[in-house]
Amino acid sequence: MTTVQWILLDHAVALLSVAFWFATGVTAALRRHRLAFGLLIGAVLVTLTRPATVVTLAGRGWWFAQEKVLLGLPLLGAAALAAVVVAGPRLFAARRTPGAGLPVGGVVALFTAAYAALVGLVVTFLAGYPLTWSTALIAVSLVCAGALLTAQVLGRQAGEHTDAESPVSLRTTAPRDSSALSRRGFIGLTAGAVAAGAGITGVGLLFRGPEAVVTGGGPRRASGSRPPVSVADLRGPSAPAPGGTSHRHTLTARTATVRLASGGDVDAWTYDGQLPGPAIIATQGDLIEVTLRNSDVEDGVTLHWHGYDVPCGEDGAPGATQDAVAPGGEFVYRFRADQVGTYWYHTHQASHPAVRRGLYGTLVVKPRAGGQAEELDLTLPVHTFDDTVVIGNREGRTEHAVRPGAPVRLRLVNTDSEPHWFALAGTPFRVVAVDGRDLHQPGEVREAGLRLPAGGRYDVVLAMPGTPVALVLDHDHGSGVLLRPTGHTGNDPALPDTSGWPELDLLHYGEPATVPFDADDADRHFTIVLDRALAMVDGRPAYAQTVDGRGHPSIPDQLVAEGDLVRYTVVNRSLETHPWHLHGHPVLILSRDGTRSSGSPLWVDTFDVRPGEVWEVAFRATNPGIWMNHCHNLRHQDQGMMLQLVYDGVSTPYEDASHGHS
Ligand SMILES: [Cu+2]
Asked: Where is this region: Disordered (predicted)?
């Protein structure tokens, strides 16, 4: 079973135990003793299976089970044991004696077990990892408060008998003993005080500020030999490499109603009134200079060069590397096109609505020499406007005539927040590059599906056969690209159902090659645990998308020094996929769920961490700056899942004026 299946099973068992304990309490209070006894046995059995699922989860990684092992199970175990001891024998006896009463204390114990089961489940969903003292204290105080309230209510129902030994049934009356009464009053008062104290302390601890920075086991301050630098001074060169030329573009962000090539209007935010924005194509060594102007995008705009390792001052991260460009303003980006490959650009300001509405375009850098150019080279950015999926600016299927034997390159770009599926029917093919970086000796594959993470790119190469080839998008035969051999007059063959094709696993694709470092010697190691939880996001409480239980901007910065070898363990505790994206550095994939990457070295800027998965990646910190590190599901990013990687000695003069929309 996969980790996420164990997570779901554990949730189901936990929910079942809540249901059983509550049902036991309710039936006992209603004096349905025979039924209550049966339910009690059920509650105990379900509770006893819980350690099995929790231990299995702990085996998959402590992050998946910590709050259950340290809080949920001990709390439930103690309450369940008390309930069995206090209520069990009385229920057993009462089940054959109609009308016999169970003392209030017994019913309260049963309900307390139910509260403990419920609170454990709620902690998993609302707090998650890591467990804090605050969470633990609040949880314990809630269980105590529930027990006390139940005792009050049941005691009142039992008439004047507030004595905890009073039966819920009024048929038997316990002798009133004033010393017992006052003793129980004292116990109640003490328990109430403890519950209130724990609760208040727990809530108070919530307001304790988080660590501002984590160091991943490295020193807090590096050598100190490097003079401090502002991110504003980390800018690109102003001239191309020898032999290169300068590409100058002006992109104007503006709102527009755009007619798609396939018909249909989109109410969009655009660069230059186009969807996608103008394609930027350069040759290795060229200088790319883009003047960004903002006409009327109220929230402001930037240009972020996704996957392109530009100097930090060119990265387009508002509040970190620049101020967002307001209507009427402009910003000039300059960087050298040193990396060959398929990339894209998009705004990083208010990116959750703004990229979705159209502020994106493609960036392709071709080799200067040596590389063999394909006869047909198509850049295919996929995007979803409302429910309309387009490739380029066209819905449905586009067709191209191709000479048989011609080499073809398809540059697949996912500009959405969810993964897309591609299938290439009618030909063998190779995935020659991932996220712009060439793979080592990629083998020929056929009838395999490609799952492209949000923000990711695959370069697919094929030799045009004498029969048609279809690139199928999301298993929809009406959507994608059809390549027809020139002069082809026959009927197109029926497309196969691609939904059953196995996914090409890039961790085991291509041939191994040497990599520039041994990741076991990392200077710093950070763990990033992704989940949902109650947390502050941009100053507001939210059911946030969290990193280590916190939302942006309360997630501590990760500190590195230039030259450090940095390792990440990225854990997904949640039930949604998180395409993790670090700016400014490609990361080398080491392993997924403990299985080492065994194919070509895989360097990516976005990797999909699916529910229950644990990824190990590493990179060399060679690009000084302040870099966003976030989920590229832009809704998740907006809901808190973003932090910063900060180089020692680098500061920023920019203030994130609109934290919520960065
Ligand atoms: Cu996410």
From this structure: 215-248
